[in-house]
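[agent] plan:
  1. take the single chain provided in the ticket
  2. run structure prediction with default settings
  3. attach structure tokens to the ticket
  4. add a short note for the reviewer (M.T.)
[agent] executing step 1
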Amino acid sequence: MRIDVTQNLLGLNGEPMHIVLQACPMCGRGMEQKGVWTLRRACEDALLPDYQDERQGGGVSEAEKFRRYRLAARIHDEDKPNLSAQDVVLLLKVVAKMFPPRIYGPARLILEPLEQAVPDE
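[agent] step 2 finished; step 3 output follows
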């Protein structure tokens, strides 16, 4: 299925959520807004890290790491990539691992609309 990854992630108020860098009193950096959260940004940010729990548990295979990289590249390059059900399952897994509910929830609503949502555990 084709999913528009340029969609903004919406907060509970229905407004696009802004990416905010918190102020750092140690270095003197003030709080900054760095754009709006999009599904693309959340997916790329979640696909590319090396997660500590995966390193401790024997790690992710090289093939899985490359699969994540290729999916991130496709999401980066295409506004409406064709995502398989397997791609969506992987995206939901890593977005849930990387982000709190305020990012995961809106991303899930785009990736897996309520009509097709998997029941909560």
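[agent] step 4 note for reviewer: The beta strands are 18-21, 32-36.
[agent] ticket updated
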